[in-house]
């Protein structure tokens, strides 16, 4: 397994904190007129909105975090890293092309949709089918993560269609998507530490066996 640098833990850990912190601050600036259960994150980052700068800055920072994590997650497959990095680029585009204050935006909506798809499929694309893979890169957890994100997307679309809890569904799915890279990076670092500890223990045992095989003198 290729080594995952320590700074990937920082970049992956900052993503969910920045995202949740960004929409929390932006919602506070919006005041009581904003309903986080029924309104999406894009409303917070719309042109002219009171929470425009905090939410836009958070989305941009999350995109940078995903790009850095994709660069550092060397234990994952190239396809998975490219998908994660592509999701980061899409987040940058979403931040740079915000939704208008009223109505929809094809460019904003398209960038958000592409980013969602890439961040949903990257776990299964990054899966390592070798027997020695870290937990976060094993096929079963990766498939479960992608399936959960897909189910979350279906829930979000359902809520949008019926005019229900759009904001809740979007926040649940995007929180999971921003958190999963941290889970994968942490599992890689823990796996590496466990292997290193096991190797040292094995080396000590071998050394002890060799001492025991030395010829005994003085008898």
What does this protein look like?
- With 219 residues, the chain is mostly helical.
- Helix content is 73%, strand content 0%.
- The protein is built from 7 helices and no strands.
- Mean pLDDT is 87; it is low at 203-219.
| Mean model confidence by pLDDT | 87
First and last CA, distance: 49 Å
Q: Which range best describes the helical content: under 10%, 10-25%, 25-40%, 40-55%, 55-70% or over 70%?
A: over 70%
Query: Could you say which overall geometry the principal axes of the C-alpha atoms support?
Result: elongated
Derived from helix and strand composition plus strand pairing, the structural class reads mainly alpha
Count of DSSP H/I helices: 7
How many β-strand runs?
A: 0
Write down the Rg.
Answer: 22 Å
- Fraction in beta strands: under 5%
- Helix-strand sequence: HHHHHHH
> How would a crystallographer describe the biggest sheet?
none
* Unreliable stretches covering 5 or more consecutive residues: 203-219
């Amino acid at each position: 397994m290729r080594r995952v640098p320590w700074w990937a833990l920082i970049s992956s850990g900052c993503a969910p904190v920045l995202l949740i912190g960004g929409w929390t601050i932006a919602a506070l600036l919006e005041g009581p007129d904003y309903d986080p259960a029924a309104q999406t994150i894009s409303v917070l980052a719309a042109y002219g909105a009171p929470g425009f700068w905090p939410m836009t800055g958070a989305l941009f920072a999350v995109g940078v975090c995903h790009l850095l994590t994709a660069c550092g997650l060397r234990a994952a497959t190239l396809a998975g890293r490219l998908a994660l990095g592509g999701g980061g680029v899409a987040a940058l585009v979403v931040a740079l092309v915000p939704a208008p204050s009223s109505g929809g935006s094809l460019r904003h909506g398209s960038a958000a949709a592409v980013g969602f798809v890439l961040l949903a499929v990257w776990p299964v694309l990054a899966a390592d089918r070798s027997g020695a893979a870290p937990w976060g890169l094993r096929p079963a957890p990766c498939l479960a993560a992608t399936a959960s994100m897909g189910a979350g997307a279906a829930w979000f679309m359902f809520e949008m269609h019926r005019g229900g809890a759009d904001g809740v569904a979007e926040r649940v799915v995007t929180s999971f998507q921003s958190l999963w890279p941290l889970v994968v990076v942490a599992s890689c670092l823990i796996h590496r530490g466990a292997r290193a500890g096991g190797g040292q223990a094995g080396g000590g045992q071998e050394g002890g066996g060799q001492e025991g095989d030395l010829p005994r003198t003085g008898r």
